[in-house]
């Protein structure tokens, strides 16, 4: 394959390579030790070295080098004066020979005409890079269904939009873009970061580019001429597209690409995103389809978010309870085998690989084609038939199964060795309370003892009645028929049993089984104890919040009126906060953990909490509760779709969302009586978040008549609260139907009862068709709107903070924020966390803006780069090497809206320390300090003295009430200041007058400085704020400013107003097209007209 040309320094490397073919310009070399028939010792050593290296460092056996003519080649192992450029590397000699023939046939004759070595090298580099680009296009096109058409579309995309080379075209669609009532037929191109449209009709060209980061909403519309259109809404404009061949596919890809881009740009750490999607150059249409399927499988089976989807195969599984084969789909991931029937929810099966003993092929017959037998540890076997590519599937599964068993055995050996040496007890940190001596001793004992049983066994409020015994008998019958454990068949029958309520004696076991938390517990033996021990005694923000909420968790339950329950709750919450610091602790986790502790052992409760927070409710408990807000937005759309009367009465459903948010965050635990709330948790562990959506719709549907008569949000809240808290006195298994005379819809609110069994059954019957796939698609689309709402809030807060500090208009400040944010997205500092670098510019990002936003044209590019480095050092004064928006806005405000003295002051500060380095060619930290202080850091001082001086400077910087005089400028710094002024005036229409004026000012300032050097101006010495010897030539800022004010051309130059929006137009076009030249005047006029 062709590689990007790079220079190779061959130090003693000629002994590792053997030249096979050569000419005046190229060498074909073979790695010693590869392809040799004889066993020479050097070849064996080199071959062994290449073999033990990992795949990333392994050297390919062949390469072609371009040798620059005239190089002094020495075959001595000591003299190093050889430079080559590596052009191509291949693992097969046939491929290398094919490339060699191409080079000799197409390049050899052309290279002989070059006389300059640099031109020759540049020509070869350009040719090879062109071959690489063509090869990449070919590979990208080969991945599509129609490679030739995609290659043609890719060429048009690059030609029409001139986006950066890194921009990856994902797919394209033929459609119409509507402008009013006029359709424009063209092509919609979807790339990794932009959505682009191009149309050329009747001699008129229409094209536009919209970054995904600017899209705030996507929706389907069907009205008038635009039948089945897709509406794309940005902050500035609304675009509508129609006449797709497949609107559903186009809408799905649009939503998916936009969702991925926003999650990557706005919150790559807070939201879970597959790592492969962070690499935009690898995204294609097939990957999007696989990612959508993966998200669906993870949500359907509630698998860990790190699971990767491997195989998807249609098959049938033998279901003993039905005595037949059930057709469906088999999904295989890293650690699971998952089966789902064709109709979602009819029959599902989950087989963790840790439970599997063997996967074998059976003899194929006409009745049982391509059977596969999966045996599990509970001495059961599952039969799958009609599997396509059975051999490959079984081989892949067997490899993963063997690797998993090996890892488990190694882990258990380590655990057993540790346990034999030093057992690890459970601990928790001390919780301060006012207890007596005896109570304190008892409390300490409780803190060092983990509960081996569920709290409900010790604090049971009621004795189990006949109803509980009936439930237990029904579940035992079910276990005998459908199996017991995580690999039992999950059918509609178990759904009916869950709706009736899980018996308390089986609740903890079934929660562990239905959520598959039991697999995590078994595969992480001793993990909880280590988390408790590591978190013991730590004091963090999360532990402080946990301590505040401990006694607010089910305060009416006797288990949490006792130190035993409180200590267990503390341990579970603190251990989880230590396990997942990204989440830490969020409100409502204490209520959930309390209920889990009642029915499960302490360690089981911990893993159930892990399962809920990281699998079943992803992104719910991050720092911005994005997941819960996304589901609220999805819930609103479901209300519009399923409850149109209620949606018509409440045009703005945000009032209902404020009520229903607690339903999702606490799983109805905070709004239902305890006995009913745990029934909802039962349904949640069986059906996932789908159960909460269905139950929420059922609650609103049951109260639609009362809600439609409400006049405000408070009354609606009272109706829903009264309905949920008025539980029926008894909950029979099969409640008798109500006669017309017993209808309670007209009874007062306080006398109406809520039967939780009826409510759950109605939710399944009326809203059971709300599927996981539908919820996942809605989440993908609504996450866009939620993220953009958060982004608008962040922007409003930033502008509110900065606006009092600057004098630019609110519109210009808003545009400045957008440009600042767009620049921060272009490159990311991978060495910093998302929180650290969010909307801050590093040096490279700031300099890319600096050279484009300057109101003056600096003639020398090198000098511009130097000034950019100085400005960055001046602005990043808080030692983090990043520029915040506030610092950026104040700098921009000085350039465009500042008074003359403020602009001169800024230029003055750029030519004194810390902005000006002692030696700008020497990048050492001591000579180029990034620390912002009023004193330079001298090398001669000891470390302690430097530290003391830095502390003094920090104390001085806090005194901001009085504006401090600037340090004096020495002669070297003044010369640099003059050079900067000369570069600013170069190319100006009044260049001659400005040069003459600055010459006059320079002469005047030099005279003033010389007079001060001779000690004739005593007042100048009073402004010294840094250690300067008495004999140095110095000048003050006031003297320079006074001298500049004597020349009217200089005053006019710095006071000349500059329109800021033209600079924004320039920077916007440049960022979008990655240009290095100024935009055309027509482009600026278009932008100016748009803004007006």
From TrEMBL:
It holds the Pfam family RabGAP-TBC. Gene3D superfamilies: EF-hand (1.10.238.10), Pleckstrin-homology domain (PH domain)/Phosphotyrosine-binding domain (PTB) (2.30.29.30), putative rabgap domain of human tbc1 domain family member 14 like domains (1.10.8.270), Ypt/Rab-GAP domain of gyp1p, domain 1 (1.10.10.750), Ypt/Rab-GAP domain of gyp1p, domain 3 (1.10.472.80). One of its GO terms (biological process) is system process. Transmembrane segments: none annotated. SUPFAM superfamilies: EF-hand (SSF47473), Ypt/Rab-GAP domain of gyp1p (SSF47923). Keywords: GTPase activation, Repeat. Residues 501-688 form the Rab-GAP TBC domain. Coiled coil: none annotated. One of its GO terms (molecular function) is GTPase activator activity. It comes from the Eukaryota. The keyword Repeat applies. This is TBC1 domain family member 8. The lineage of its organism: Eukaryota, Metazoa, Chordata, Craniata, Vertebrata.
């Amino acid at each position: 394959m062709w590689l990007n040309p790079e220079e190779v320094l061959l130090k003693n490397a000629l002994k590792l390579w053997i030249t096979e073919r050569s000419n005046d310009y190229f060498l074909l070399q073979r790695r010693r030790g590869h392809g040799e028939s004889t066993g020479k010792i050097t070849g064996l050593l080199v071959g062994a070295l290449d073999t033990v290296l990992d795949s990333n460092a392994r050297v390919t056996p062949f390469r072609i080098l371009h040798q620059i003519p005239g190089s002094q080649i020495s075959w001595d192992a000591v003299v190093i004066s050889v430079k080559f450029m590596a052009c191509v590397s291949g693992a097969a000699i046939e491929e290398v020979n094919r490339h060699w023939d191409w080079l000799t046939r197409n390049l050899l004759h052309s290279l002989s005409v070059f006389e300059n070595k640099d031109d020759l090298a540049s020509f070869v580099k350009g040719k090879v890079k062109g071959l690489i680009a063509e090869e990449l296009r070919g590979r990208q096109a080969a991945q599509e269904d129609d490679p030739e058409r995609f290659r043609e579309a890719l060429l048009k995309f690059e030609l029409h939009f001139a986006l950066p080379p890194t921009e990856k075209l994902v797919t394209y669609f033929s459609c119409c873009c509507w402008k009013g009532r006029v359709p424009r037929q063209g092509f919609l191109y979807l790339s990794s970061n932009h959505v682009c449209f191009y149309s050329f009709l009747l001699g008129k060209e229409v094209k536009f580019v919209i970054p995904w980061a600017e899209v705030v909403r996507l929706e389907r519309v069907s009205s008038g001429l635009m039948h089945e259109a897709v509406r794309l809404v940005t902050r500035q404009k609304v675009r509508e597209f129609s006449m797709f061949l497949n609107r559903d596919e186009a809408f799905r890809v649009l939503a998916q690409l936009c969702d991925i881009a926003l999650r990557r740009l706005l919150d790559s750490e807070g939201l879970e995103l597959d790592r492969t999607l962070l690499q935009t150059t690898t995204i294609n249409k097939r990957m999007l389809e696989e990612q959508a399927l993966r998200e669906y499988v993870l949500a359907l089976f509630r698998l860990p978010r790190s699971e990767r989807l491997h195989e998807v195969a249609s098959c049938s599984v033998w279901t003993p309870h039905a005595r037949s084969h059930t057709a469906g789909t088999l999904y295989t991931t890293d650690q699971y085998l998952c089966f789902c029937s064709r109709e979602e929810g009819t029959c599902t099966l989950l087989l963790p690989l840790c439970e599997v003993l063997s996967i074998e092929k059976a003899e194929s017959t006409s009745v049982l084609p391509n059977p596969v037998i999966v045996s599990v540890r509970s001495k059961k076997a599952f039969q799958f038939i009609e599997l396509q590519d059975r051999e490959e599937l079984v081989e892949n599964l067997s490899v993963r199964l063997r690797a998993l068993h090996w890892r488990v055995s190694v882990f258990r050996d380590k655990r057993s060795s540790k346990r034999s040496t030093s057992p690890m007890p459970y601990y928790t940190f001390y919780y301060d309370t006012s207890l007596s001596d005896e109570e304190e001793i008892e409390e300490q004992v409780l803190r060092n003892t983990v509960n081996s049983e569920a709290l409900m066994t010790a604090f049971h409020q009621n004795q189990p009645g006949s109803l509980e015994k009936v439930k237990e008998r029904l579940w035992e019958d079910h276990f005998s028929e459908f199996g017991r454990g995580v690999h039992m068949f999950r059918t509609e029958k178990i759904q009916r049993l869950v709706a009736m309520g899980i018996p308390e004696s089986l609740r903890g076991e079934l929660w562990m089984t239905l959520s598959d938390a039991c697999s995590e517990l078994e595969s992480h033996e001793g993990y909880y104890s280590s988390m408790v021990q590591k978190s013991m005694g730590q004091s963090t923000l999360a532990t402080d919040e946990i301590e505040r909420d401990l006694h607010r968790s089910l305060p009416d339950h006797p288990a949490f009126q006792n130190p035993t329950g409180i200590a267990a709750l503390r341990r579970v919450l603190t251990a989880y906060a230590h396990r997942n610091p990204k989440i830490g602790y969020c409100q409502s986790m204490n209520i959930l953990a309390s209920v889990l502790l009642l029915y499960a052992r302490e360690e089981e409760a911990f893993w159930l909490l892990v399962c809920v927070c990281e699998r079943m409710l992803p992104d719910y408990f991050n720092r911005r509760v994005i997941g819960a807000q996304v589901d609220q937005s999805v819930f609103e759309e479901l209300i519009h779709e399923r409850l149109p009367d209620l949606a018509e009465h409440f045009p703005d459903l945000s009032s209902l969302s404020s009520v229903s948010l607690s339903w999702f965050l606490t799983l109805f635990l905070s709004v239902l009586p305890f006995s009913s709330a745990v029934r909802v948790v039962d349904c949640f562990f069986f059906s996932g978040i789908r159960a909460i959506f269905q139950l929420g719709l059922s609650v609103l549907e049951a109260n639609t008549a009362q809600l439609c008569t409400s006049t405000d949000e408070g009354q609606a809240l009272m109706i829903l609260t009264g309905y949920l808290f008025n539980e029926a006195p008894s909950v029979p298994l099969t409640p008798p139907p109500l006669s017309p005379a017993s209808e309670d819809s007209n009874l007062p609110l306080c006398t109406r009862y809520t039967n939780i069994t009826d409510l759950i059954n109605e939710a399944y019957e009326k809203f059971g068709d709300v599927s996981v796939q539908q919820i996942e698609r809605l989440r993908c689309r609504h996450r866009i709107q939620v993220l953009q709402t958060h982004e608008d809030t962040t922007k409003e807060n930033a502008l509110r903070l900065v606006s009092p500090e600057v004098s630019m208009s609110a519109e210009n400040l808003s545009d400045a924020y957008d440009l600042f944010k767009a620049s921060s997205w272009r490159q990311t500092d991978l060495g910093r966390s998302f929180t650290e670098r969010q909307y801050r510019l590093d040096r490279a990002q700031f300099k890319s803006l600096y050279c484009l936003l300057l109101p003056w044209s600096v003639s020398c590019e090198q000098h511009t780069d130097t000034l950019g480095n100085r400005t960055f050092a001046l602005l990043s004064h808080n030692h983090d090497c990043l520029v915040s928006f506030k610092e950026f806005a104040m700098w921009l405000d000085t350039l465009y809206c500042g008074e003359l003295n403020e602009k001169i002051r800024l230029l003055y500060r750029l030519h004194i320390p810390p902005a000006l380095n002692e030696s700008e060619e020497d990048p050492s930290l001591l000579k180029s300090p990034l620390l912002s202080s009023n004193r330079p850091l001298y090398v001669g001082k000891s470390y302690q003295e430097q530290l003391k001086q830095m502390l003094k400077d920090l104390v001085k910087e806090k005194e901001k009430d009085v504006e401090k005089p600037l340090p004096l400028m020495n002669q070297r710094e003044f010369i640099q200041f003059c050079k900067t002024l000369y570069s600013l005036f170069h190319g100006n229409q009044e260049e001659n007058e400005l040069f003459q004026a600055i010459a006059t000012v320079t002469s005047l300032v030099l005279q003033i400085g010389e007079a001060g050097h001779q000690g004739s101006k005593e007042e100048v010495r009073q402004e010294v704020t840094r250690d300067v010897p008495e004999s140095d030539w110095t000048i003050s800022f006031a003297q320079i400013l006074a001298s500049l004010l004597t020349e009217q051309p200089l005053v006019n130059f710095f006071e000349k107003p500059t329109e800021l929006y033209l600079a924004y137009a320039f920077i916007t076009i440049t960022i979008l097209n990655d240009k290095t030249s100024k935009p055309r005047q027509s482009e600026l006029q278009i932008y100016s007209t748009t803004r007006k």
